[in-house]
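Obj.: predict assembly geometry.
Materials: sequence records (below).
Method: joint structure prediction, all chains together.
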Amino acid sequence: MKKVLALALAAVLTASACGTSSGEGERTLRVFAAASLTEVFGALEQRFEDDHPGVDVQLNLAGSSRLAQQINEGAPADVFAAADEASMGIVRQTGALTGDPMIFAYNRMTIAVQPGNPKNINYFTDLQRPDLTVVVCAPQVPCGAATQKLQQNTGVVLNPVSEEQDVKAVLNKVAMGEADAGMVYHSDVVSAAGKVEGIEFARSSGAINRYPIAVLAETGQPDLAGAFRDLVFSETGKAELRKAGFGTR
Amino acid sequence: MLWIPAGLALALVVLPVAGLLVRTDYARLPALLTSSASLNALRLSLVTAGASTVACVLLGVPLAVVLARATGRGVRVLRAVVLLPLVLPPVVGGLALLFLFGSNGFLGRLLAEVADVRITFTTAAVVLAQTFVAMPFLVVSLEGALRGAGDRYEQVAATLGARPWTVFRRVTLPLLLPALGSGAVLSFARALGEFGATITFAGSLEGVTRTLPLEVYNQAEADVDSAVALALLLIVVAVVVIAVARPKAVEGRT
Amino acid sequence: MTLRAELELSRGEFALSTTFDVPAGTVLALLGPNGSGKSTVLGCLAGLLRPDRGAVTLGGRALTRTPRVDVPPHRRGVGLLAQDPLLFPHLSVLDNVAFAPRSRGTSRSRSRELARHWLSEVDAAEFAERRPAQLSGGQAQRVALARALAGEPELLLLDEPLAALDVDAAPAIRGLLRRVLRAAGARSARATVLVTHDPLDALALADHVVVLADGGIVERGVTRDVLAAPRTAFTARIAGLNLVTGTAEGGALRTASGGVVSGVPAPDVVDGGPAVAVFSPGSVAVYPGDAAPAGSPRNSATGVVAALEPHGPVVRLRTEDGDDWADGVAADLTPAAVAELALEPGTPVWLSVKAAAVAIHPVGDEIG
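Observations (raw structure tokens):
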């Protein structure tokens, strides 16, 4: 009885380890994309599957640096779309890419505040006010790196109460009213759909994130991966990106 | 035949830790561990986990006694409620704390109005989050011990002329010591490893709210070697606490 | 302190209703089968349970008077010795015994002094520094008795104090209880209530006995009268014993008429002292006619059948005109044996009982 149980357990463990294998006759395209691309790539996934019957697009959405680590640890991926060039660089330096990464979108930093801007925040320098509770991303993640760069460019020194691990956490802290202001991407304000308000400021162009995309060398289906990349650059792709608050070329 | 599942269970615990040991960059280890961020996180973790263990003991012991001694239908519901933090995802626990103590929460607003005190983003929030998730461990181990012992010793003590407070102090509490010791160690260990509720409720800032687990997560974004080194530190602290404190607590009765 | 108790209480199906007094310096045994309400009575006296209606007074002081008075256990001045010793495992033997004086506010050193005194009273002085876990069952029960006595209770409650002990330890503790209850009881005029299902305990320790069944009192009186001549079939069934009085002599009993009853003497039997031989009706063998039975057990004597009455599954025979101890003895037989032996009132019989089935107990003045 105990032996049977152990075998069953082993079987379950094996099965779940292989859980990503697709059904028969269906091809799977694994797209690793930065969390900020959730809405855009969700729409593009639908579009791509409509255009390519029998193809299942699997999106792995997470922070860019985490995705880069996963790829370097051997996670199977066909396409990688990052929120910053540094993350793409981590993958690139191991020679895991086919061709050079291409920039497909831009995102600029914005100050997220509560709807109606109750604390009357209008400039980046306002964030130094002692009465404000400010939340930013940790410097280790792209939105934090961008925030740091902004501080260097402007000479503004922020005194945040928390350095969050991803931009959505910053957004939530502002949306829930725990923080008065947070440094996020413009696209995040758009996706928050009214729960926060974005304050544009003049110097934001000093910290623009460029989104690179690349096909991975490991992919067994370069044609399909290339087709997905092309979709991102197509008019359809650009429209979705702009709708989500990104800048395109 | 027990050894097959037992071996599997052990492997499930040991192998991932072994993997961590293999991945560790021992040449950089001293430098990584003595960085100010690491030391700050270690110090903060020890201080907050210690404080929340004290809070668990002060609040959890009376609660366990009440739960073990009370009768009636409501007690079962109450017990389920007390165990809630065990089954809740810690992030949900963090959100719940935020809804209570946050700037829009009932108590949060009250504290801000009355005392001009903010809880979120402070070290106190870390202790609160850790106490929230760790308390059930203490209550469960204590309540089990209390129920097992019954109240016969207390009854005898009462007939010997001991007032209720004397009974609690001289009989109930000493009989509970072994369970209290292991419960406190479990609570400390849980508090030490707490991540989800802390990052949700308290945020993450070096020296203030960024405990070891949060620092590990933060470092993992940029430098895996550093994260592994910190994880190793966390494991060493946890093993030392469990290995050193637990036998003492168990032997406490002789 | 004289105890008076009037208790009424119901818990679901079970209803208890009793009234009894325990004069100062005496021991009352509450005798009854499991579920008869003995422990409930004890709980009410100790203050651990509250009766629905009733009153408990100790030396004129009201401990319970429903609905208003309910003195908590720690202010009642009672001592409880239960079936299990329940020594506090985290305290030494000495500190266990010192617990009651300490709780009353006596200084630590004075409390320990008192504890040593009570430990020596129960012959347990040598265990003072031990932990309860290092004691045998009998030793632990000695210490528990010392602990209960150290509180100098005005009312001592003994709840089946011998039931959890093995057969080797029970006689010694029974002897100890006899000595302590007698000596200290007379001195401090303490009242003692003993709960037991074993008539031997009642016989050895109690002056008076109350027989409980289903929450009510079915019989009460002086212990030996009740046990030797039960007036109700119920008491006879649970407590009907043959008692033969006399003087202890060389481990046996010498009757007033000069006969000898062999048996197993209790450890505290004193040669030449008043004693009683106890054996159950079931252990008495009956042979018809006047011929001595073959293989002649040591205790055998002649008598005449006085009465035969059904007694549950057996027939209880009672003798008259007996030789020596065989007068007025009860013996239980199967109906088939009665028919086969053609027994009827007036039939002469031989009675015999094995020495191993006879217990010899000392008898004190109060009990005698």
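Conclusions so far: The beta strands of chain A are 27-34, 55-62, 79-81, 97-113, 134-137, 162-164, 181-185, 197-199, 208-216.
To do: check interface contacts against the pulldown list.
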